[in-house]
Amino acid sequence: MPERLYGIRHHGPGSARAVVQELERQPPDVLLIEGPPEADALVRWVADAGLEPPVALLGYASDDPRRAAFWPFAVFSPEWQAIRWAVERGVPVRFFDLPFAYRLAGDAPVARLAPDTPDTPDTPDTPDTPDTPVAPAGPVAQPLPSPGAPAESLDGPDADEADAESLGPSDADVGAGQPGGHDADPADADQGEAEPARAVRPVDPIGELAAAAGYDDPERWWEDVVEHRGMPAFEAIAEAMTAIREASPEDPDDLVREAYMRSVLREVRKTYEDIAVVCGAWHVPALARKVAVKDDNALLKGRRKAKVDFTWVPWTYGRLASWSGYGAGVSSPGWYHHLFTSADEVVPRWLVDAAGVLRAEGVPTSSAHIIEAARLAEALATLRGRPLAGLAEVTEAAESVMCDGEPLRVELITRKLVVGERLGGVPDDMPSVPLAKDLAAQQRSARLKPEALERALDLDLRKETDLKRSRLLHRLRTIGVPWGEPAATRRGTGTFREEWRLRWQPEFAVSLVEGSMYGTTVAAAATAKVVRAADKAETLADVTALVETCLLADLAEAYPRVLASLDTRAALDADVNHLMAAIPALARTLRYGDVRRTDVAGLATVTTSLLGRVCAALPSAVGSLSDEAAKMLRDRIDGVHSAVGLLEDDDLRERWLSTLASLAGRADLHGLLAGRLTRLLLDAGRLDGAEVRRRMRLPLTVGTAPAHAAAWVEGFLSGGGLLLVHDDALLALLDDWLADIAADAFDDVLPLLRRTFGAFETGERRAIGERVAGPRAGDPGATAGGLGFDPGRADLVLPTLRALLGHDVTAGEAL
Amino acid sequence: MTALRPHAEDQYAEELALLADADDRPRPPGWRLSPQAVVTYLLGDGAKITPKYVGPRRLMEVAVSTLVTDRALLLLGVPGTAKTWVSEHLAAAISGDSTLLVQGTAGTAEEAIRYGWNYARLLAEGPSEAALVASPIMRAMQTGTIARLEELTRVPSDVQDALITILSEKTLPVPELNTEVQAQRGFNLIATANDRDRGVNELSSALRRRFNTVVLPVPASADDEVEIVARRVAQLGKSLDLPEVPAALDEIRRVVTVFRELRSGLTEDGRTKLKSPTGTLSTAEAISVITNGMALAAHFGDGRLHPADVAAGIVGAVVKDPVSDGVVWREYLETVVRERSDWRDFYRAARDA
């Protein structure tokens, strides 16, 4: 046999171990790996200590980094182990899958890709931004995994692998790979036709074999059935695959890839004697089959190549796991890591680690717990008729014995152990990432050059270029690259001006690499980051700030998620003050939109529901308030009231005013609020003058504490004296009421009024007085008298004036 | 038989016999059925065996496995999640006897868990076996059957600790007679405890680690819950001889929906987040709201279940704390119920209630 074919399960620790053993036993001259051939040059990095799995090969179209795919490798990936083995021994390694360039260019009609389907769909459903990048590529791929993944209950992750297998290394590797594999363009391209075929093809053939044998964890099956029985594993797998493939429909995409693999194989045979091939088990029968050269060439003919770039990027186990948003991830990378790295006593070691996690969080966990958990896991396995406890049994045992059934602790174990928090690393001198390239492109288009010296930038958002710059700077700030800081000073009242201080710092390059985990373009990364922040935000205020960020940075795709998050936070926030504080800003945005031409659809719904909650919760929030709390609530109510005015929604307004009306009559209301509400209702026309006069009289009667009365008047008149000057009706009302007060009661009321009026500006007070006096006196000539002008006292200043001016002054002249 | 509620082993005697006949798997010592058959008894087989518990299979598997490993089982959950129900049926299936029961209360004394004395005999004859009054747990140890302890966390801590020797040494010393009772194979203990009582008499960690904990969740899907409620309402109606009222599935679904939404703090469509009230809103409460509504409808209404018949019951179940729950309920009414066009009647009824 000219070459040895090792059919593996992508991300299968069992396969990884077996591959390395085989390579050791029979070292080949050259190693072929299922993966994108464009990445051949990157293989040498594997020897670099800085490249630490989990890492991913990132491939992207040079002209459009959004079209990208990832091929992740974990330490337990058979491909990774094989590459390492080869690199350490100086054995040449070649990736021999269909080039990514073909997939990208192949059919990917630009038109189809252009909308960036991936971005859009992914962003919303992927909590994890990082995935977004994948998504673009992956979106296409995604359809594949999904049909398969559900099929295997536990193995969602494995499914990936499976896919991977089916797909070929590239895909396979990454759960994401999938995307990668078919991905990028095929995805788009064939999605339509290919999908039906794919739906039928087994996604994880090894997983299916395992399931047929009654295992829900293909790795345990591999261990029991393949590893514990000695070595002819790969022959057995190849045979099984041949049988499965004969009965399964073929994916046209696979056929093309396999044709390419065969042609590479033929070429390599000319140079090398002893060839080892590591590929998904699914492909083994196809590679072993004899196919005429011209048939393969016919399949490969006429494919166009796009220009692509490859690089290594750090990956995390969290992103390998399906729950972080991968349609096709490995759901338990941490468990696989454990299976791969622990030589014996898999279950006890795992439970000891789990106990360690719990202890680190301060949960007392004794060795007895571990013993009992191990016993329970075994009993469960027996009950279910399994030879050995798998992840399901171990998790349930840990939950029942060590976690006392507390879901939070179980989740802790899942997060820290089953998924794991391992983060890969890449060497510092690695070539740049697509995010950096995208930024460079945007800098060019916005005509902004990075400069190390600080400079100020004044933007007029009505201009296209300036708007673009502003968005770019806001987005960069979101992804942790504060190239520009908004200058707070001298901000005019106009919403179209923005001032920035720009300064490029070298460490931003690092931030960009980090940011590239979130997306391959500045916009995608910022979107992903905002979405993640929205998911994690704890208070309403945090989310409100994010809404603003979305508007400023024009992250339309993050918008729905942030709004949803806002809605959630609003529902859970028990403090009506927070809810009310959030409303005015939202209402303003809604009413005026802004210069940025943001789409505000969706905001209306959220604002409405926010207001509904405020209306429902306000009644219980206004009772028994201290002076300070009352003052704060008054300001909030004022804010919401004017916001409601801006919204121009009669139904909402009606609801708000009804709420206020029901509140205003309450006896336990703080005076300040009672007065204020009466005033608001008066202004809104909900109360007529007579009613208001009646209400005004009440607080000022004997039965009321003076402080309450004072607060009432203050609340009623707050908003500045200027209003009294210009609002005749209000002034008349106040005037009538004053005139109504009985003479002996007036002395009591006077200090209260003084307290309120004393807070007005002197000029205002004077103007009010003039207004009242003017019409009353009815005689222009008597104005002075109306003002209470005392000529006798005024005359006292005359001598001084005389001295100052140096000549005689008469009373008439002074006036 | 006129018992208001027959024991599980009597009510389901046929099913148990059927399972025992067909059961060819190994049975642990002292067990009447194999573990697999016990799980089948609990979850039903879709044919002759009716489901006693509707919920995740893995929970029942963990519970049964726990009893196999001779560790004690602690069933935890909010009130009304079928803890007692499950423990009764487990005991019935495993030992054929669900009556060895200790009800935990704040006044439960150590005698209820260990043993007491027949004082007349004690005085007349002095300490002797005959003067000893065995507790249900002691009897279970002697006969190798399952004992049940309800509401473990209501039992005072010092009394709880009497369990430690029983569970770890599987023996109960009787120093007065200088003897001991050793548990026979097949003995085990199922305790239930209420999640909401946490902290009242928290288990000591020594005791806690002798239990494996299984948390019984509220039903996962609305359909499951509607099914549970409908089935139980029908059973209850029969046993309480309520006049026949067509159990309106719509109303059941509505009650279940309200309970689920408030409990989970999220509307069923997943769009709107809600605050949760302080009450537990368990399935059992939903059952009693419906039963109550049916009684209202039958005796005081026109014999059909209307929204108004259940509205008062729902408000009573939701608003346990007049202040904070009141806000929650109003907010729910105004933001969720009000928007649902086919819930108009219910909205009006609930507002008036």
From TrEMBL, chain B:
Pfam families: AAA_5. Residues 73-211 form the ATPase dynein-related AAA domain. This is AAA family ATPase. It comes from Paractinoplanes ovalisporus. The lineage of its organism: Bacteria, Bacillati, Actinomycetota, Actinomycetes, Micromonosporales.
